[in-house]
Design a protein that fits this description.
Layout lengths: L1 H14 L9 E13 L5 E12 L1 E8 L2 H4 L2 E9 L14 E4 L1 E4 L2 E9 L2 E10 L3 E3 L4 E8 L9 E9 L10 E5 L7 E3 L2 E9 L5 E7 L16 H44 L12 H5 L3 H8 L8 H12 L2 E7 L13 E7 L8 H10 L10 E3 L14 H27 L3 E2 L1 H24 L4 H21 L3 H14 L6 H20 L4 E2 L1 H17 L9 H14 L17 H4 L5 H11 L28 E4 L1
Parallel strand pairs: 1-11
Antiparallel strand pairs: 1-2, 2-8, 3-7, 3-21, 4-5, 4-8, 6-7, 9-10, 10-15, 11-14, 12-15, 13-14, 16-17, 17-18, 19-20
Length: 634
Amino acid sequence: MKKMISTIVLFIMMFSFSVIAEAKSYSIESVHIKSWIQPNGDLLVNEVFTYNFDGEFNNLSRSFPKIHDNNVINFYAYELSQLKPEPGFIDDATLKQLNVSKENGVYRTKVNKENQQVSFLYVYTLKNSIKAYDSYSEAKVTYFEDVDAHDQNINNVTIDFILPSTTDPTNFDGVLFDRNAKKNEKSQYGIRFNTSVSEAYTETKTSFFFPSSMMTNMEKTKAAIPLQQAIANEKRIQKETEKRISYIDKLHAIIPKATIGILIIVLLLFLLPQRHFWRKGSTEDVMNTDLLYLYFVDRVGKPHPKAFLAGLFSMVEKGAATVRQTKAALRFKEDSHAPKDTLDFRLVKGSLATSDFEKQMINWLFTTRSGSNRWAFHLHDAAGAARNNKTSSYFHGRVKDFKKKQMKWHRLVESDLEEAGTFNSKLPLIILSISTIVLGTMTAFSYYADLRSSWGIGFILGITFLFLLIIWLKKRSNLFFGLYIIIMYFSTTPLVNDQLVNTLVNLLLMFTVLYIVLPRNILSMNAVRAKDAIRSFKSSIKLGIPDNLSDKEQEKWVVGAYLLGRKNEKKVSLQEISAPLAALLLTSTDPLDYVTQSWKWTKVASSDGTSWGGASSGGSEGGSDGGGGGAGAD
């Protein structure tokens, strides 16, 4: 199950980055925006977009942030017969007016262009764009937003603000908030902002401060802070933004080193003695060692439905219980696929079961729901509903309760083996925890450096903390691991910096490999030698049962072959064995298979109440409007 989930996660991560060739594409080579400040607080805006079309396009789109959308009026679009003219210096003879419609906050312009470079002019008025104070006025305009509408890089962006009247350049100043902002240019007519590229899914906005004496048709309010402080505040925010972005280069160096560090740990894990598949041991050690110990060492403590049978057979070996072949439960008699025989365990001397996990097993399997003792456990007591009656709240509850108690028993066995020094589960958890902290920290810091929201950073740290809590409480949960990796993978998609995304995905891939390779427990050297003996025993199964074994030894060998051998492997010829359970345990049909299959088809009745517990779920639906600051074509 662990390998399957991890493989699915790796598959999703590797192939979701595959590129599908599109039939057409476009790029925006340059944008020149010029805004004339009006004395009444409006902006008269001209925008020249120059597109490169590869393929046939029929529509252009221009959208605005919600803070501006209701203030955009008198929107017109024109095709230009010349390329990249400067707004304000365009000859009317070069204009061809185009049809424009507004849909869900997006202005759509009809065009018919194919495989060519064309410039277009947008003209509109942005109402109430200026805030006028007694000592200064400010224009804060967002041209492109970090939303889906801005899903293309917009290259070579120039933004001009033209004042209502000329003034000395020392009387005004402004700030461009953009990842690639260049130095501002000022003249007596106004200010010019430049950026080499407004990257997709990023914000491009301006703050411009100038004398209020120019705003002759506006009422002024008292400024909360002086002009110089207002400008200083904006520049401080700009510097903080630049500082955050500067961390991206450091992350480009740190994340690959973290990935290499995890790779080194993965390689070291392959050197663990318990992974030395070429080592061999004595099969006699298997015959002289407790079956439950062997089973847990063989699986390195990984949970499995068959584990409790190893516990029962261990109690049989100690003399605390007996086992015999018996008829299948009567409720399965109508099922042609049900086995005719199964296992029946009898508790004969419970006082020999002295460990906590053995006592818990007796309390679990040999006690009725009312708390009274019973002396028999029929394997089909653990089964779910019959195939012809799959919907049963009673059997669904029984299966759920059985699995819960089985996991409790499993933890007790693991705990006992840890106390004995056979298992070390802390070191794998520490390795996994440190790697998880590195992954979560690197992703969260990438969000910070890439100017993502505080909410996003908090979400990354929160889901990482939750995963850490789960792995320490549940000691590895494949389900939550799969969910965590998928969430972390898709959390990289909002990042703008492609190189940062690639390095994080590489880190995620290596983290997934670590999870696959990292054993649940690290074995002691005594346990490693036992695993060597198990490896030799498995290889010897196909050679048949050894000669000169007593009946008791034959039974131990048969049970060992059943518990430790590969599933559905043809083990031996039954003619060689006189042990009573051989015919049941060494056939191609595992007696536990039907039980576990019944767990899968047993379902709770949807309309029935149940004393075994229940669950409910709810949800909500929502939607969002179109728009957002951006431009495009289709």
